[in-house]
Amino acid sequence: MNVFENISWKQLGDRVVAVDTNNGDYYTLNEVASTIWIAVCENKSVDEIVVQIMEEYDVSDAEAVRRDIETQLSQWKEMKLIF
Amino acid sequence: MPNLMLTNYCNYKCSYCFGKDIMYPQNPRLTMTRECFNGIVEWVKKGPSDNTFHLMGGEPTLNPEIEWMIARLLEENVHITIFSNLATKNAYDLANKIADLPVDWVVNVNNPTNWNDLQRKNITYALETLKSRASLTFNIIPDEDDNMWALEYTKRFHLNNTIKVGFLLPTYKQTNVALEDDKYSIVAAKVTNLAQEAAKVGVHLDYECGVPTCVFTDEQLGILWRCGSTLQSGCQSRLDITPDGNVIYCLPMATLGTKHYSQFDCYNDARIWFEQRFAPYRMMGHNIECTNCNLHDPMQCNGGCLAKNLINCKNVKL
Q1: What average pLDDT score do residues B93-112 get?
Q2: Residues in B touching A30 (Cβ below 8 Å)
Q3: What pLDDT does residue B11 have?
Q4: How large is the ipTM?
Q5: Is residue B261 exposed (0-12), middle (13-18) or buried (19+ Cβ within 10 Å)?
Q6: Cβ-Cβ contacts under 8 Å, A26 against chain B
Q7: How far B293 CA sits from the closest chain A CA (Å)?
Q8: B307 and which of A2, A5, B87, B252 could share a cystine (Cβ 3.0–4.6 Å)?
Q9: CB pair distance less than 8 Å for B317 and A12
Q10: Cα B77 from Cα B95, distance rounded (Å)
Q11: Interchain CB distance below 8 Å, B287 and A12
Q12: Is the pLDDT of residue B285 over 90?
């Protein structure tokens, strides 16, 4: 997975803000989504992201975490933020 | 109309210079030629624009063709402003020669305690000559004195009664010394104090771009407002043209999106091109608070200097 070249982004504290430089659409991610976004940009696999989220947010239900992450990633793919 | 950079050489080597990304000696020394200058003037005339040319550097008076260039612009009946530190003999000589011409000078100065004897002589003689044709501009440094010297100089030499102050802003490539985030409030307090003292003696404070509104407290903003000294926290460049004819948005972002002026039909096309490309990036802001701020608008506040806000951005490409 990777971020499209036209998506410029940066970290502001524990949040990520991103902008589509083709059309100006602007996104402010919440804290968990920001963690997932940065993990994607660090080329982590879904498995690795699941482990990271479980550790950072003290969650024990791995399947639920995986489902949420996959849903988020699918949304970003539909929105043409990542591929 | 654009700011024309007549040379990228400067007699000063200020650590905080926000032009450092394209300045000599970090880059090859460049001097604008008559041919390039003439081409730019004709190019600007092709489309709509305001009636003012800014001549800057580096130190523009170190371009040996500057007198010819001024004469050329006066033929076009445009307003000319020269941005100079006045610290060289060239500047002093030029100021003497053209003092009677309709040319304004914006004098970039450091605190006078840092001037050597020769610089002091050149600057003060030139200011005596230029009088209200000259206005002072300088950066507010957190650990320097309260800058009352600027008021004293403005009154003593009968200078233009508007003083422009700036914060030490970083270049996109971070090649200069810039103000740390935790020092902005110190500078904001100094600015407010200076604006108050200035208002008492009929001097008006104006601001370089890139000053976020929220570094001032509500009380300080109220004081500035009462002094008639309104912040300009938005950012919209006139565009700068380098000595070799390349158009850049502004000096701190000189390494982003450079194109030769001849690639645009006219100056106005260049402005539109740059504004369209930078517009999405203005949404980024500086803090997470910017995302919900009522002032977050290109014409009101970008969360400070756009170059500063782009430093940690990924995928910045015009």
Answers
A1: 95
A2: none
A3: 96
A4: 0.89
A5: buried
A6: 280, 283
A7: 13
A8: B252
A9: no
A10: 20
A11: yes
A12: no
